[in-house]
Design brief:
It contains eleven helices and seven strands. By secondary structure, the protein is α/β, with parallel strands linked by helices. It has one domain: P-loop containing nucleotide triphosphate hydrolases (Rossmann fold). Strands 3-4-2-5-1-6-7 form a seven-stranded mixed beta sheet, sandwiched between helices. Helix 1 packs across helix 11. The protein is globular and about 50 Å long. The N and C termini lie close together (12 Å). Bound molecules: adenosine-5'-triphosphate and magnesium ion (MG). The site of magnesium ion has 5 residues, from helix 1.
């Protein structure tokens, strides 16, 4: 059965897009049919596959604002089982329009309903805020993944973010389940990071993914090559950890 996984966090630069692309690619490599939707007007998903904004006719903007069918905005990326819907916002005015149309907070849910069963997972990459586009994602989703870095400020903002999500879930999406909190860009050499990892493991042990994503230069370089890390270097720690995460997600999901 198709599942919608939303990747969200209030903090910027924590690895949401990196996780969306590389978890999506890893699930595709494991034979799952994946649609990756860019909910962020920054448009990083298309960038990550070297798809130029000016060449893209249809994206999330046209789906939300011009009401074209979502299927008209789906694009291939050169990896079997993986397709994307780019955000395709060309200027500030369009960005404001997109956020405004997303005030209809169940819009994405209704757009995804007819295609949900065509995929094993639909992955939503959200902007770094709890604005209307993220709320659309949270209302449409079955599963939530929150990436965090093992840093002092993460602990504080994570608690606040979780209670905001609980409120949104209680009000608009009672079936939203926790997929997990994912530690990203982890550097085992740093004592402070190891200490914060322990705190996260203590405070959130039931909802923390066992897989930890290490800081890995191949992961940072892959977008510039227009590919997921698994197609750049399958033996890198970045590629192996996202494959492990994909397996963990599938197994966890099977138990629900
Ligand atoms: N595990 C990692 N190792 C090394 N670099 C990483 C890793 N994960 C992400 N990065 C790099 O960190 C930066 C931020 O990552 P990313 O864009 O995925 O975060 P984000 O949460 O989507 O950001 P935003 O909030 O702006 O959307 C990028 O330059 C990315 O290449
Ligand atoms: Mg991003």
């Amino acid at each position: 059965m198709g599942k919608i996984l939303v990747i969200a966090s209030q903090k910027g630069g924590v690895g949401k897009t990196t996780t969306a692309i590389n978890l999506g690619a890893s699930l595709a490599i494991l034979g799952k049919k994946i649609l990756l939707i860019d909910m962020d007007p920054q448009g990083s998903i298309a960038d990550g596959f070297h798809q130029e904004a000016y060449e893209i006719k249809n994206g999330l903007y046209e789906v939300f604002v011009n009401k074209i069918p979502l299927t008209a905005a789906i694009r291939e990326v050169g990896l079997e089982n993986l397709e994307i819907v780019p955000s395709n916002v060309k200027n500030e005015e369009q960005e404001i329009d997109l956020f405004a149309y997303a005030l209809q907070n169940k819009l994405l849910k209704s757009i995804l309903k007819p295609i949900k069963q065509m995929y094993d997972y639909i992955i939503l990459d959200c902007p770094p805020n709890l604005g209307t586009l993220t709320v659309n994602g949270l209302i449409a989703a079955d599963l939530l993944l929150i990436p965090v870095q093992a840093e002092f400020y993460s602990l504080k903002s994570l608690g606040k973010f979780l209670s905001s999500i609980k409120n949104i879930g209680n009000k608009y999406n009672k079936t939203l389940k926790f997929s997990g909190i994912l530690i990203t860009m982890f550097d085992r050499r740093l004592k402070k990071s190891r200490e914060i990892l322990e705190e996260l493991q203590y405070g959130f042990k039931d909802i923390l993914f066992k897989t930890i994503i290490p800081r890995n230069s191949k992961l940072a370089e892959a977008p510039a090559l227009g590919k997921p890390v698994a197609l750049v270097d399958l033996t890198s720690s970045g590629a192996l950890s996202y494959l492990k995460l994909a397996e963990e997600l599938i197994n966890k999901d099977n138990r629900i």
